[in-house]
Each structure stands twice: as C-alpha cells, then as structure tokens.
Amino acid sequence: MKIRIIFFCLLLGIAQLTMAQHFRAGAAMRIITPDPLLSVSGGIGTPKKSIQKNGELSIRALVLEKGNVRVAIVNVDNLGWPAALGNKSRALIKGIPPENILIGATHTHSGPDAYGFPNEKGESFADLKYLDDCVKKIAEAVNEAVGKLEDASLKIAVGEAKGKIAYNYYADQLYDPRCGVIQAIATSGAKKGSAIATLVNYAIHPEVIGASRGILSPDLCGPLYDRIESQGGGVAVFMNGAQGGMVTADNRVEGGKEANDWNECRRIGELLADEALRIVKDAPVQENPALFCTARKIEFPVDSEIMRYILQKSPIKNEMAGENRIATQLNLLNIGTAQVLTIPGEALPNIGFYVKRYMNTKQPFLFGLTNDAFGYMLTKVDFNSFKRYEYVSRTSLGEMTGEIYMEQALKLVNDSPKP
Ligand SMILES: [Zn+2]
C-alpha cells in the first residue's frame, strides 16, 4: 500500500512537472486616463492644461512562463516611465522576480508628467497621486495576467511594415522599417486557437497630436491597440524601438504641412496594426517554445547639466549610483526563436541597427524606453556633431551614453544562451 502511494505521488509529481514545463501566457490591461483630466507634459517646462481627450491611456501586461521562468512585459501610455515608479510596481507584483519585469513607455507625447519635470524655479507639477494610481494598476494588470496564465504556443515574425507609417524627421530614409511581432495563442480550453495577446515592436515617435494642444491621448498607439483587438489579436501590447533622433510618425501632408489630429492617429495606428497582423499571419507555430530571461545593472555618467537638474529636482526619487552616475536594469529575453534587448532611453536608429546585427537571432527585438527613459542615446561620433543633433545631444546623459549601452548590451548577448 505504502509503495503504491509513493508510486502514485511520483506519477503525480511527474505530471505536475511536465505541466509546469509547458509554455504558458496570460495578458491583462488597465485604463489609466486621469479623471478629471490632467495637464499634458512634453518635457521640461510648465505642462499644458488639458481640455479634452482623444482615446484612452492604458497599460498593458503580457506574462510568459516556462518551467520556473516567468517574465512580465508591460507597456505604459506615457512619455517615459522612470525606474523609481517601475520599482514600486515591481514590489507589488507577486510570483515574478523584479528583474524579470520589463516596463516600457510608449512615448506618447500627450500624457501626464511621469518624470516630475522641474521648471526653471525647480517646481514640479507632476500629480503624484495619479502616478501612484498607475503604479498600482500596473501591478494589478500583471497579477491578473499571472492568474490568467494558460497553455500557449507562439507565432513570431519580423518583417518590413509597409506604407506611410514612420520616417526620420532629420533625414527621411534613416529609420528601421522592421516590425517585430509576437503572438501568443491558447492551445487548450475554451479559447483554444485564439490569440491571448499580440505584441508589436516598432520604432516611432507617437507624437501626431503632440504636447501643445491640450489633448490627452495615447496618440497612434490607441487605434493600434483597438485594431489588433478587433481583429482577434487578443490584448495588444506595444513596445517602442530605437526611435531617437528623430524617427517619428509620417503625418506629412502636401504643402510641407502635417496632419496632427485623431484621424491621423487612427490612420497610422490602424495601418501599423494591419501590417503587424499581416507580418505574423503566416509565421510557423512554435509549440512549447523556450523562455529565458536575464538582467544586469548598468551605469551611466550623467554629464548633461539639464539631465542632472531633472534627476536632482524631480519629486520622483531617482536612484543614483554615486555622484552624477545613474544605474538602470538592462534585460535580455529569449522568447522562442526571438531575442529581446531593452534600451533605457531613446537610442538613435544607427545604434538600433548595430545592436540588432550582433544579436543571436534572425528575429531581433529592441524594447526602447524600457525600465527607464534617460533621454536620447547617441554614439560618441554623433554627439554634438551636426547642428541637427544639438537638441538630442543636449537632452542625452552625455557623450558616452550610446557607447556604454552598445558595449553592455552586446556583452549581455555574448554572455547569454542563444534562443
Ligand atoms: Zn522622443
């Protein structure tokens, strides 16, 4: 009898082990549009009072699990999301190690201030209560996604997004047209065969509406989410890419003018969604894919006066790594055949091309403005070079930011297993 019980327990154990070894995915979202509306912040200076909203601001969480590895990928509709806020959410999330939680900002230019930008007098107008509410909702969404984890397969593809979506405002052609897509599909239960979530990775500035019009909006990301969800893509997640200096939405119209309304957000967001779904449609199904996650702390010197001023005066308590140094989390993920690297800011597109070229995959993903958003990241030769680069040089941490990032990112690639 005793032996039979032990044998039974052993079988149960094996069954649980194989079950836990199966790849699982879950997703959830929360609306974070402030009510009443808050002012819109596009950076340093006094924010612009909002008089209306176009669409809803949201946060979106995708949780992936294989064996004892669990990872959360979260996007927030905001200009940037400092680690000081992200870490508060990490502390509220159960069952996922903090270093396995990636939080990226979509970089909409029509959201409330999350940096606590000081004005010339050192005053900040950030609504800390709103930010705290967002912190809780991020944790809630991730915890809900954990609760919804179910057996899943993946479809992954990287392809060129065609049509009038992005361009480089400084030099038309200098941008990366590749769009990476990861779609998680339920493999059992009532929703078998349907998408749990679709993650879109593409480099673009969502600033069709911009920060000066008094409109709160997720910009083109809102229509992108809605389109993917209406087409059966499950919860839509958008992770930006290497969109610095100055890869932006192609809202150019005749006569040197720009379309800057919600209709244009819809045109671009829906087109990008359709392209993402086209790119992933015929991708081979990856049954029970592998999952790997690693993280490393990296440090940057803060050479820029403006960046020092923001970091010191902000009511968001940024964790410094010594005098005029800042630390952040760099992540590498292997998801099935894809590899993901995070970027803690707005890397210029040439940095994106370089890093992708040396990643150990034919499906490289770069999650820009993720875990932190420290302004622009240029190579040392680009820094303070063209007159065009004056602004992006001034709003970067310093001359070596891009160099340190590339070195550390590729070191992490070399130190990690291949997908
Ligand atoms: Zn930007």
Question: What would your notes on this structure say?
Answer:
- The chain is built from nine helices and 21 strands.
- With 419 residues, the protein is an alpha/beta fold.
- The longest helix is centred in the N-terminal third of the chain and has 20 residues, at 2-21.
- The structure holds zinc ion.
- The site of zinc ion (ZN) has 3 residues, from loops.
Structural class: alpha/beta
What is the 3D shape?
Answer: globular
Distance between the termini: 46 Å
Bound heterogens, unique: zinc ion
Pattern of helices and strands: HEEEEHEHEEEEEHEEEEHEEHEEEHEEHH
Helix content estimate:
25-40%
Helix count, DSSP H or I runs of 4 or more residues: 9
Strand content: 25-35%
Q: How would you name the oligomeric state of the polypeptide chains in this document?
A: single chain
* Uncertain stretches of 5 or more adjacent residues: 12-19
**How many DSSP-defined strands?**
21
Cα Rg: 21 Å
Mean pLDDT: 94
Main sheet? 9 strands, mixed
